[in-house]
Write a structure and sequence with these properties.
Blueprint (H helix, E strand, L loop, with lengths): L2 H72 L4 H6 L1 H15 L7 E6 L4 E4 L16 H8 L5 E6 L6 E11 L2 E11 H8 L5 E5 L5 E4 L19 E5 L2 E11 L2 E8 L1 H51 L16 H38 L3 H17 L1 H18 L6 E3 H19 L3 E7 L7 E3 L4 H10 L7 E9 L3 E8 L6 H12 L8 H14 L4 E6 L5 E8 L16
Parallel strand pairs: 12-14
Antiparallel strand pairs: 1-2, 1-5, 3-4, 4-5, 6-7, 6-10, 8-9, 9-10, 11-13, 14-15, 15-17, 16-17
Helix pairs in contact: 1-3, 1-6, 7-13, 8-9, 9-10, 11-13
Amino acid sequence: MHQFQDELRQALWKYALLPVLLLTVAGLLLMVGSWQHYVVKDNARHRTQLVSGIETVMEDGARRVERIGNQLEKSPGSIEKIQRDGKSRAEIMAAVYPELDNTDAGLTFYLLDNQGKVVAGSRQQLPPGLQDLSEEWGFLQRMGRSPAEMQAELAGGSPRTNRYLLMGKAVKTAGQVDGFILLVLPGEALQNRLMSGKQDAILLDQFDNLLFPWSQQTAAGKAPAVFRHNKASLVHYEQQLYYATGRDVGHGFTVLAVTPVTNLLSRYVLGAALLLALFILMVPIIGVSVLRESRGKAKSIDELVEAFAAVKTGNWTHPLNLQPASGLAVVQEAYEHMTRSLQELMRKNEEEAKASVISEIRQLESQFNPHFLFNTLENIKFMVKLDSDAAMSMIKSLSKLLRYSINNTVRRVKLADDLAYVRGYMEIQQRRFGNRLVYQEQIDPQSLSCEIPKLIFQPALENAVKYGADAKGRIAISLQVEFGRDTLQIRIQDRGRGMDAPTISRLQALLDSEANDSVHMGVYNIHRRIRLMYGKPYGVQVKQREGGGTEVLLVLPIIWEEGKHAETGNRGR
């Protein structure tokens, strides 16, 4: 009763809620797009800029340290000699001066002895925060352990203005570490060179020392554990949220681009809350509107559905009484006119369809292959000269066949009667082909009293004779009649060359169609007659035999001579 009402409510719900859902999805997509553009992409660009800048600084520092080391190797004497001799110090500074000219602002050079004391350099003392260096300092030890490689590290006080990027390499004299080359770049100078001012960044060395220019200060000069990574992640620190991505840049350093996103995410949360509130507010408003609209039409619509459901079942007299206020009075008038017209039309169509089917069946039954008749008469003409008795026998057989085929008063016959016609037909064919044609039958005796369409075998047998010859011209045909589970099955088989799979498929598709415009008139004749008389569950199937040749299967309903459909248990088998 309320099926249509439910469907109407569902439709109203769907189309009313759809704009709200689309608005919600659009808002979410806008948030995602904003995040990708203003956070992810900007962070990636900033990280790329930082990585490129740090790599350039490292590569430039490595080249400078290498060239300064080469200059020291050209100067005879040890670090100790340079420390004692002012002239040697001047020569060294003059040699390395080109490496410090036109360079980064704030970059200074120092030549240290193996105890970490300044021998020569841009200044007489190391910068504040680095003056307590000694031979126990880990940076000097690492340079001493790997004298062939430049080492880099962060050092100095915890405020970023007192942090330094150190780059250095050991100096060897007579195969022994005699001192150290040290380049010092203040963190503030590095920040001015690399930073765009739009985002924060973290530079970590292999010991998690933090340099610049992150806005959050740490007393110990170490990066918080949540930032010690090089993967993209959302980090919560000091009641703030950051989007951080990192990348390794060599010498144990990692660059992290840090984007504060607390305010942005707050706006996202506020926007999502507004969308959710709008959705929650709209649902009851839409629900009330849907109920109000559906309730007024429900009763009339249900009556209309019931009326058409009755018409569908064949009840043409079901009354339809719609409420005038429903606005469907014109539908009621059209319904009444429709039922009257349909009753009249169904009556006329039934008469026309019945006449059409009978006409087509008669047309199919009346078809008789002129080639067969012509060839038979030709054989009779020659047999008259050679064997008059055989000719007379063929004339009698042909006469019986013609008399049987042109009798239009009978449409269904017993299987035994049609088999008698088939045997006469095959007798004529055997006289035509002689020993080259062999015909066999395997008939279930109980099937002889079943009723079948008249002349149902002849077209299939004719095809078997025409196309069933093997490579030596011999024709072997068998006719089998047996009971299936609920059907009478008739198989006509030959041992000829058969048809390939594509041809079989095309022929089966032709049998399933409603019209035939091909050369397979005989098989289609059988199939069409069976479908017209008994319906789609029955008909003809064609397939290729495994041992060679073709099989035509006729599937018919089991109808006994009394005219009743037989049940499986009543076959007496």
